[in-house]
Structure formats: C-alpha cells, structure tokens
Write a structure and sequence with these properties.
This protein is of the alpha/beta class and 111 residues long. It has helices at 5-8, 20-32, 43-47, 69-78, and strands at 13-16, 37-40, 57-60, 84-87, 103-105. Strands 2-1-3-4-5 form a five-stranded parallel sheet, sandwiched between helices. The protein is globular. It starts with a helix and ends in a 6-residue tail after the last strand. The relative contact order is 0.19.
Length: 111
C-alpha cells in the first residue's frame, strides 16, 4: 500500500539522518525554498513509511547504531528505490560509492 502516495507527488526528497541538527537545517532550508521534504532518523523508521519509490532518498553515510549509509542504500535499492544519494560530512570525493548510489554529496541541502 502507498499510504503516502498522494503526498509523494509533492515531495522533493527524503532525508534519513540520525543528526537532529542536520534534519532541522534541511527542513528549514526546504521550507524557505517552498520544498516539501520528510526526514527520518533511521532506515527502519523510513521503511515503515511506504514512501513512493520515485522520491529521491538522501542517506547519511554515518548512521549511529546501524549499518553504514551504503548498506542502507543497498537495502533501499532492493526495495525498489533507485534515486539514492549519500550525504556525508566526510570528504565526499574519497568515498567509493556502490552502484546502488547515484552520487555522494556533502551535508548541504542539495536542491
């Protein structure tokens, strides 16, 4: 079931990040640009949400207490999500992303 399918037409992106400050910053910037985003603090919370597979997903590389962002990206890809990006505070160009990840970016709001 697509619980959020009507909402998702208007979703610009989803962020999965355990850092509350990063989630709050992205929400604030998105609101200022007239964008609609949803934020989740972990992959498990996201997977319960039935988000449309066409929505771009941005995953924190260093999720505390979970697998790496790359591991979560692979799991999301298997679930049918294809627009997956990794957001990292580390040097993005140094990370060797798996094929499931479209691009590795910094922590700045991407749109």
């Amino acid at each position: 079931g697509y619980v959020f399918s009507m909402l998702n037409v208007f979703l610009n992106l989803v962020l999965i990040d355990d850092d509350e400050l990063i989630r709050a910053t992205w929400k604030m910037v998105a609101k200022g640009k007239g964008h609609h985003i949803l934020c989740f603090h972990n992959g498990e919370e996201f997977l319960k949400s039935n988000i449309d597979h066409r929505v771009p997903i941005y995953v924190d590389y260093n999720l505390k207490g979970e697998e790496s962002g790359f591991d979560l990206a692979k799991k999301l890809y298997k679930q049918g999500y294809k627009q997956i990006f990794i957001a990292t505070g580390s040097n993005a160009h140094l990370l060797d992303a798996p094929v499931e990840v479209q691009k590795v970016i910094g922590k700045e709001y991407p749109l």
